[in-house]
Write a structure and sequence with these properties.
single chain; mainly alpha; 152 residues; elongated
Length: 152
């Protein structure tokens, strides 16, 4: 093999590398964007959960946030339970949307666990007024698969 043939092969390899590099970088950027979007979504969920879990745990926070008198035990208990329900709904929506976005399969959504918690914590009493906040597909999913636990 002479030097001219080796040089030609080198130029072909260089041309292929020049074409492959932008394709590789485009693929990497697409993966990075998807990861960043998922991370931002998770951080938003954590902010919501932190708020509602805090309200559900701390009676004084209920009094301050909702303007309920400290001696109004009934309202405090009701609002704490509502905050707990809202936090659970956000957790459930997170799991459901992972399936909806094909990250997990349909059989990985713990519907029976949702139903047990729904009945135990009486979430049905909070669902109707809160469902406007959630993703419409998630609302339909809960109405079809979980809310009917009250009727059983």
């Amino acid at each position: 093999m002479n030097w001219e043939a080796a040089g030609a092969i080198g130029e072909v390899i260089g041309a292929v590398a020049v074409l492959a590099t932008p394709l590789y970088l485009a693929r990497q950027m697409k993966q990075n964007n998807a990861l960043m979007r998922e991370q931002a979504s998770y951080n938003m969920l954590q902010n919501q959960l932190s708020y509602y879990d805090g309200v559900a745990r701390e009676p004084n926070l209920v009094n301050v946030v909702y303007g309920v008198a400290a001696d109004d035990v009934e309202a405090t208990v009701r609002l704490k339970a509502e905050a707990h329900a809202t936090a659970e709904f956000f957790r459930w929506q997170w799991e459901y949307l992972r399936v909806h976005e094909a990250i997990f399969s349909d059989d990985e959504v713990p519907i029976e666990a949702f139903r047990r918690e729904w009945k135990k914590a009486r979430f049905g009493s909070y669902w109707e007024e809160q469902k406007a906040v959630f993703h419409p597909d998630f609302v339909s999913f809960i109405d079809r698969n979980v809310a009917d636990a009250d009727r059983e």
